[in-house]
Amino acid sequence: MSAAGEAGTSPVGDVGRMTGFSDGVFAIVITLLVIELRVPAHRSGELFDGLVEELPVYVAFLVSFGYIGVIWLNHHTLLRLIRGATLGLNWINLWLLLGVVVIPFPTAVLADAFDHGGNDHDRRVAVLLYVLTAAAMSAPWLAFFSYLHRRPELLGEGISAAYVATQRVRPVTGMVLYLFSGALGWFVSPLVGVIGIVVMIVYHALTSEGVRRRRPPRRPGRG
Amino acid sequence: MSAAGEAGTSPVGDVGRMTGFSDGVFAIVITLLVIELRVPAHRSGELFDGLVEELPVYVAFLVSFGYIGVIWLNHHTLLRLIRGATLGLNWINLWLLLGVVVIPFPTAVLADAFDHGGNDHDRRVAVLLYVLTAAAMSAPWLAFFSYLHRRPELLGEGISAAYVATQRVRPVTGMVLYLFSGALGWFVSPLVGVIGIVVMIVYHALTSEGVRRRRPPRRPGRG
Amino acid sequence: MSAAGEAGTSPVGDVGRMTGFSDGVFAIVITLLVIELRVPAHRSGELFDGLVEELPVYVAFLVSFGYIGVIWLNHHTLLRLIRGATLGLNWINLWLLLGVVVIPFPTAVLADAFDHGGNDHDRRVAVLLYVLTAAAMSAPWLAFFSYLHRRPELLGEGISAAYVATQRVRPVTGMVLYLFSGALGWFVSPLVGVIGIVVMIVYHALTSEGVRRRRPPRRPGRG
Amino acid sequence: MSAAGEAGTSPVGDVGRMTGFSDGVFAIVITLLVIELRVPAHRSGELFDGLVEELPVYVAFLVSFGYIGVIWLNHHTLLRLIRGATLGLNWINLWLLLGVVVIPFPTAVLADAFDHGGNDHDRRVAVLLYVLTAAAMSAPWLAFFSYLHRRPELLGEGISAAYVATQRVRPVTGMVLYLFSGALGWFVSPLVGVIGIVVMIVYHALTSEGVRRRRPPRRPGRG
Which residue numbers of D have CB closer than 8 Å to B's CBs? Predict the structure, then answer.
């Protein structure tokens, strides 16, 4: 490993610290979600009703937990592509973690807007805030893949530049579909926007190990 | 290590990140418990009485700390079984961590219900909530062992498939006994249900290094 | 490394996870201290006076940060003694981390009791609570050294059993002096008790790399 | 690695734990920033206005996130200079982390002072508090470089003592310019002080891989 800053080009460092720092951020974000779960205020003998009334909060917690988990799986796959980290990749990773840290906020705004008594205009605004944040969160993933495409020497063993190029499909799809969901939420109905958001979470869950190009002839040997 | 997503079958990755992320989650959950400990409100000269009054809170804190610690020890033993992590194992691990993150919530509901002035019906509900959560927490452990049983190539050196198969006894026992404790708590007395819960924590503490089959002839060689 | 639970004797595992989990706990405890620092309530133009009034809080924060830091340094030295972790050591380490997580609580009680308007009896109680907690915190350190003394095969390269035996002096000194400080605080004056507590923090800072036996002849070779 | 405390000189240990602990602290500090982001209180149908009103809070969050990120990048570069950690370096690192943990506090005071209705004198005080904290934060970085300069045997492969000596320019520049910003903020205008603070963050971002001496002849070989 070359010394930081000693050389003319950006030096290549260990992936370990980027990983450790990222895992710390993911672990804290996913654990802090539980703070929303509180003993429901209830009259004596009505704990059951109190718990049932809070059901939407518990469902929202599960969805958020699942979503952060899915992003972690995606990030896990992402860092397995590289064998070294540069200053550029560290910056992109910080940008990516910004999205992870921020996402509980528009989620809370969305949950608040769809709570009983919410206003239709507020719901449109909440959907828009969410999809704009989510679309902005997709940008660093595209930047990461593009950076790797330009610097194939950073790729881990057995990772082809073509594979990395293909992965750019995911964040681009994400940005387009999030904005589309936002348009549906604004012009058609906020509920349709929310459905679009849930579809996107499922999409990211299904592609967490990367999208695959169709490869008609299967190469021999173990995966 | 094969590249993520390059191959037809699910690729095998490093256990390191699964471990780091899990340890982060465990560390945060076990540390956040301390937030419940507050300087007791008291009149001047009555700090001692204030502290004594809060004693149940301190005992609950110690039990919770012990329980999360026991789950960590179990998880520690669990990850020592494997030499690689797949997407499937990462999903199961996320499910397992969901239980770790959630468990302080039904614990708080239980403590609240048994506080002075609690209602007997609420106590039954609280016991039921706890045992249902705890039983659901056992499911991913069963899934983990079953997954390993089907894919023995993931096992670490010196770990036999038979050993892994035996470990399935633990989560199944956990689920059965938790549901039994819940039935006792509901139909007999909520206090009996709580005793069942404490017995389960002790059971998990005692078996944190795995259950052992009886092996009459001792194989030679170092442990 | 032998497989967990496969053998008759307690198996020896990696120190890595014990370290990672402990570092997570230390990092969270030391960071959560900052939550006490809040923008002081003040009238317009009197921010400076507001900050000055909060000075005791800031000093308490610095002392707490320093103390947790000192415990971390001690723990760092502790784990460098061993080359493997057993279930027993993991239990002792959990017990030790319990002390790390708990210590901000008696510290807060102490700070509250010495705040303006505190009562002398409450101060004695607060000093007693602190020294009892701190003495109990020393116990797992003694247990750790005693455990290693009985199982020298766990010692890292170049660590002698005699060195480990000597280290038991530290927690024993800690327990005795904490209880002595408590007696002074109870029978003489709570302030004297606090001075004893501060002396103990300094003692642990100075011995964070372990106590040394006097060795008249210096062995050759690099340190 | 020599055993802790066995030798006469300060023993050299692994950098791994210093890194893991530091990453934990950075991860928690950068994640806790998000707690400031709350669903804005608003009347039904006025969520958009509520969000717009909170815009300064969101900008402050982004700046803080960016600043902690920049300090992490600098710390990342810092630890890449060394191949081992001594007790002295661990102490300096704790001091450095104190700055990381503390910085959100003067930032909050600054944000509060510049909120609508703030008083000019309070703003001067807030700028002074910030620059004094930030200048004090620079001191451990200077201590780290100076320590390495005196003990070149701790330097990683390919890191020259001359390079390390040059790096001392950064914290010294930081301290001088922070104090200069404070003087401007106090005697000219608090807003000028804030501009100086922002310039310093940018300076630290641009030099996160270390300052480079001018080297007219480029050595051959890869970076």
Answer: 24, 27
* Residue A141 pLDDT exceeds 90: yes
With b for 16 or more beta-carbon neighbours within 10 A and e for fewer, the A49-77 pattern comes to ebbeebeeeeebbebbbbbbbbbbbbbbb
Q: What is the pLDDT of residue C216?
A: 45
* pLDDT exceeds cutoff 80 at A53: yes
Q: Measure CA of the first residue to CA of the last residue in chain C; give whole Å.
A: 29
Buried-state track C26-40, b at ≥16 Cβ within 10 A, e below 16: bbbbbbbbbebbebb
Distance from CA of C28 to the nearest CA of A (A): 10
Predicted local confidence at residue C217, as pLDDT: 43
Indicate the residue of C24, C44, C76 with minimum beta-carbon distance to D24: C24
Q: Is the Cβ–Cβ distance between A124 and A109 less than 8 Å?
A: no
* Chain D hits for A109, Cβ within 8 Å: 39, 47, 51
**Ranges of chain C with pLDDT below 50:** 1-9, 216-223
Determine whether the interchain pair C209/D87 forms a contact, defined as Cβ–Cβ distance below 8 Å: yes
Q: Which amino acid is at B213?
A: R
Task: Tell me which chain C residue has its CA closest to the CA of residue A27.
Answer: C24
Evaluate if residue B108 carries a pLDDT over 90.
no
Per-residue pLDDT tens digits for B6-46 = 433 456 778 888 999 999 999 999 998 888 788 888 888 89
The answer to whether the Cα torsion of B217, B223, C5, C10 is positive or negative is positive
Distance to chain A for B107, nearest Cα, Å: 10
CA distance B171 to B163: 14
| pLDDT value of residue B209 | 80
| Chain C hits for A24, Cβ within 8 Å | 24, 27
Mean local confidence (pLDDT), A168-186? 93
Tell me how close the Cα of C183 comes to any Cα of chain D, in angstroms: 32
Residue entry with tokens 């996870």: C17
The pLDDT value recorded for residue C212 is 66
Q: What is the mean pLDDT of residues D148-161?
A: 89
Q: How far is the alpha carbon of A93 from chain C, nearest alpha carbon, in Å? A: 21
Q: What is the DSSP letter of A13?
A: B
Length of chain A: 223
Residues of D in contact with A91 (CB under 8 A): 73
Of the pLDDT bands very low, low, confident and very high (cuts 50, 70, 90), residue B223 is very low
Instruction: Check residue C8 and give its pLDDT.
Output: 38
Q: Which chains would you list as touching C if contact means 3+ CB atom pairs under 8 Å?
A: A, B, D
Question: How far, CA to CA in Å, does B168 sit from each of B91, B147, B162, B163?
Answer: 18, 11, 10, 9
Question: Which residue in this structure is represented by tokens 């033993």?
Answer: B77
Contact (CB<8Å) A24/D19: no
Best CA proximity match to D63, nearest among D174, D207, D201 = D201
pTM of the model: 0.89
